[in-house]
Specification:
seven-stranded antiparallel beta sheet, alpha+beta
Length: about 270
């Protein structure tokens, strides 16, 4: 992604704030900056995207991230609860920061198109006749465009869930366009069209904040042998950083503190992953 740093870059410059380490948002200085300038979190994410890393860093990320994802994916599967995307993504993000790996958390919608197309696409909509919660969350950690621990753990009414990979991990997720039917429920879309909204400009006119965000953080497509997933960003999430969150059960009865203590053993090759 070609980052667009103008505007929000000036916020950090004027405030004398430096994005010097992964997870620098866990400082009082950044929290104060965020209170004055809510767009500062987008600046942090674009800073993550914009960095030119040394080959040794990228090699380390490519070595550690798949092992970390397999381990956490097994913990998510052992937990078994659906709808763990926010907790799992925040946990992964914080553990990556412990390893010195730059990343950020995205919340948004998804469109799952199955291969072969004998099952209707499954859509996690962003907009309905009534306000809805953002349905899914994942992590971006360059060079990985999408790291998704919980796509299989969502609620699926039929057997198609078995065709979804346990984890999604992609360095080659091309940018794709978003259509109104990707984010609007059929009832909402039909109502907007009947009221005279043109399909070609509907997203830009009806949902300008989402449209502007999507221009900065575009949708990406991940292709697997059994399903194609379109990831549609809608906003960024700030992983919790207070002590109470770090010690509360998150996944499979374990806290962030417990996962952090186990991570060294797992990544050394002596753990279960």
């Amino acid at each position: 992604m070609a980052p667009r740093m103008s505007g929000t870059r000036q916020v950090a410059t004027d405030e004398h704030f430096r994005f010097d380490v992964p997870g620098c948002y866990r400082t009082q200085a950044f929290q104060a900056l965020l209170a004055r300038h809510p767009e500062a979190l987008q600046l942090y994410a674009r800073h993550v995207e914009a960095q030119a890393h040394e080959p040794a860093y990228l090699q380390r990320v490519r070595r550690l991230v798949p092992r970390l994802v397999r381990w956490l994916g097994e913990e998510v599967a052992a937990d078994g609860r659906p709808g763990l995307c926010v907790q799992a993504s925040a946990l992964l993000s914080r553990l990556l920061e412990e390893l010195g790996i730059w990343n950020y958390v995205v919340a948004g919608g998804c469109v799952l198109s199955f291969v072969p197309a004998d099952v209707r696409p499954r859509v996690f909509y962003l907009f309905d006749l009534q306000p809805v919660e953002v349905p899914h969350a994942w992590v971006v950690a360059p060079p990985y465009d999408v790291i998704d621990l919980t796509l299989r753990q969502q609620r699926y009414p039929g057997p198609e869930g078995r065709r979804i990979p346990a984890q999604v991990l992609s360095c080659r997720a091309p940018q794709v366009t978003v259509q109104p039917e990707d984010v609007c429920t059929p009832a909402l879309l039909q109502g907007l069209l009947l009221r005279g909204w043109a399909r070609e400009t509907l997203l830009r006119r009806a949902f300008p904040e989402f449209w502007h965000f999507l221009k900065q953080f575009p949708a990406r497509q991940v292709q697997t042998p059994t399903v194609s997933v379109k990831y549609i960003p809608a906003r960024l999430l700030l992983p919790p950083w207070h002590e109470a969150w770090e010690r509360m059960p998150l996944i499979n009865g374990k806290s962030f503190v417990q996962f952090r203590s186990e991570m060294t053993l797992v990544l050394s090759g002596n753990g279960a992953a």
